[in-house]
UniProtKB/TrEMBL annotation, chain A:
InterPro entries in UniProt: 2Fe-2S-bd, 2Fe-2S-bd_dom_sf, 2Fe-2S_ferredoxin-like_sf, 2Fe-2S_ferredoxin-type, 2Fe2S_fd_BS, Aldehyde_Oxdr_Iron-Sulfur, Beta-grasp_dom_sf
Residues in 2Fe-2S ferredoxin-type domain copies: 38-114
A Pfam family assignment: Fer2_2
Alphabetized UniProt keyword annotations: Iron, Metal-binding, Oxidoreductase
PROSITE patterns found in the cross-reference section: 2FE2S_FER_1, 2FE2S_FER_2
Name of the protein described by the UniProt record: (2Fe-2S)-binding protein
TrEMBL record, chain B:
Lineage of the species this protein comes from: Bacteria, Pseudomonadati, Pseudomonadota, Gammaproteobacteria, Oceanospirillales
Entry keyword annotation includes Flavoprotein: yes
Keywords per UniProt: FAD, Flavoprotein
Name assigned to this protein: FAD binding domain-containing protein
UniProt source species: Kushneria aurantia
Pfam entry (one): FAD_binding_5
Source taxon at top rank: Bacteria
Length: 198, 332
């Protein structure tokens, strides 16, 4: 994918007063919003992307708006909902609270690359199949984040397999539709299938 | 989101040299508090210094029995570490009661120590807040203060300290190690966070250029441990009241006790008078209730948070009961 300059200063939430102040503030680069980019290489779903990013570029925004990976969703943008969950070096994290420039050298996986990252070259990750089978969503907005956390939880030996432990480990992913029951069932089905494979 | 400069450092002394003014130059690691508050325009650094490459990621048992935790150890790594689970169960439980899997994978030990209050007036630059903007007033005093503190408040600020981890650390006892322009120094954990008093904007005892490098946990204490967190929903929510308890028994009586409170105070709160009230007393519900009365004796209620005085006492009684039960189980 061709590199695209990341030049929108207003990405993410910003109060009107702050916007005005930023617009007026001079910077060494000759403007608050332009010319302060740096070249960063991000490894996303096994591909290297060379990008020109501003220091304040948030990983979530870069994934969606620079790389066109719209599977990762922006919900609250403040680490309160989990819709933006991706994997960084195999661990689930909130992409809305990460500076993209700090992720050089890390292996980032989004829902688009989940199956391949786990060795399922064809088709879907077992968690994706199970979500479909169990109808583990209604509107679907939180679903990618739910599946990313679930996939990491299933691989995490520190999280026990009992319902209470799984609930707790999944609690950072909010579903406003309330599909939790089916989500839990989907995770259990995926667990059984993944154990069957190994 | 406001613009800022970003640079990365590889060594602790570079980090120390990079910060001239802690409000202007912010160290960033997990970023879960900092980036949240920069997006809200509550924190306004002009420069961020990425400290994630510093060699502060180890957990190490010291010869004197203490446990040295690197500043960059994540909350999940610390919670699941074998020695922490075995010797500091109350801390492991506190960590896992906080935030979510994703946030705990990012959030670091030092970052959690630096965590800011969740007071909605602090988080909204349109509202007066002495902590965010000294002298502007406190909207919480007469506002929606249901989640605010009843211990350690002042007429300038009643914001609750939000951390679970810090409450666990107060209970187990700890020392914060910082590296600064004048070299390294140690700060007892309980002295690190400051009461709001007349200067709520001064949240901690950290000078410009000082970087937390480690938190050293005291040698493990004898006895049963438990962290109880009470909140509006059972997961992924901040505490309304929480209690970290460590109880050591001698027969049926309390030989030693450590009690720390969260959700009810302006800083991670050690209930030392309540600990003393327990020592030598039989480990009964009546004595736990008496200790709870002592712990909350100086509590001050505001318009919407009087329930926290009751809830805080109940948290203490239940945490003491469950910590005591674990003591018995260990002995047997």
């Amino acid at each position: 994918m061709a590199p695209t300059p990341y030049s929108r200063p207003g990405v993410g939430y910003c109060t009107p007063a702050a916007q005005a102040e930023i617009a007026e503030r001079p910077s060494a680069a000759g403007g608050a919003s332009a010319g302060n980019t740096r070249n960063v290489t991000l490894s996303v779903n096994g591909e290297q992307h060379r990008l020109a990013l501003e220091p304040n570029a948030i990983l979530l925004d870069v994934l969606r708006e620079e790389l066109g990976l719209f599977g990762t969703k922006k919900g609250c943008d403040h680490g309160q909902c989990g819709a933006c969950t991706v994997h960084v070096n195999g661990r689930s994290v909130n992409a809305c609270l990460m500076l993209a420039c700090m992720q050089e050298g890390a292996e980032i996986t989004t829902i688009e690359g989940l199956a391949r990252s786990a060795g399922y070259e064809q088709g879907q990750h077992p968690i994706q199949e199970a979500f479909l089978e169990h109808d583990a969503y209604q509107c679907g907005y939180c679903t990618a984040g739910q599946m990313m956390t679930a996939a990491a939880v299933l691989n995490d030996r520190a999280v026990a397999a009992d319902a209470a432990s799984v609930n707790d480990a999944m609690s950072g992913n909010i579903c406003r539709c309330g599909a939790y029951k089916n989500i839990r069932e989907a995770i259990e089905t995926a667990r059984q299938r993944m154990q069957g494979e190994s | 989101m406001r613009q800022f400069e970003l640079e990365s450092v590889e060594k602790v002394d570079q980090a120390v040299a990079s910060q001239r003014d802690q409000r202007r130059d912010a160290f960033v690691a997990g970023g879960t508090t900092l980036l949240d508050l920069v997006k809200l325009d509550v924190m306004t650094p002009e420069r961020m210094v990425d400290v994630t490459h510093l060699p502060l990621k180890r957990i190490e048992k010291l010869d004197d029995g203490r446990l040295k935790v690197g500043a960059l150890v994540t909350n999940n790594e610390l919670a699941h570490h074998e020695l922490v689970k075995r010797d500091y169960a109350v801390l492991s439980e506190a960590l896992l009661a906080g935030a979510s899997t994703g946030l705990r994978n990012l959030a670091t030990t030092a970052g959690n120590v630096m965590q800011r209050t969740r007071c909605p007036y602090y988080r909204d630059p349109a509202m007066p807040c002495n902590r965010r903007e000294p002298g502007s007033g406190c909207a919480a005093l007469d506002g929606i203060n249901r989640n605010h503190a009843v211990l350690g408040t002042s007429n300038r600020c009643i914001a609750t300290h939000p951390s679970d981890m810090c409450v666990g650390m107060v209970a187990v006892g700890a020392t914060i190690v910082v590296e600064g322009p004048q070299g390294s120094r140690e700060i007892p954990f309980e002295d690190y966070h400051l009461l709001p008093g007349d200067t709520p904007e001064k949240e901690h005892d950290l000078k410009d250029g000082e970087l937390i490098t480690h938190v050293i946990l005291d040698a493990p204490r004898a006895g049963g441990q438990h962290y109880l967190k009470l909140r509006d929903r059972a997961s992924y929510e901040f505490a309304l009241a929480s209690c970290a308890a460590i109880v050591e028994l001698d027969g049926d009586s309390v030989a030693s006790a450590r009690l720390a409170l969260g959700g009810v105070a302006t800083k991670p709160w050690r209930a030392e008078a309540a600990e003393k009230a327990l020592i030598g007393q039989p480990a009964t519900r009546e004595n736990f209730e008496r200790a709870a009365e002592v712990a909350l004796a100086d509590a001050v209620a505001y318009s919407h948070n009087g329930y926290k005085i009751t809830l805080g006492k109940q948290a203490i009684v239940r945490a003491l009961r469950d910590a005591t039960a674990r003591t018995t189980a260990t002995a047997a």
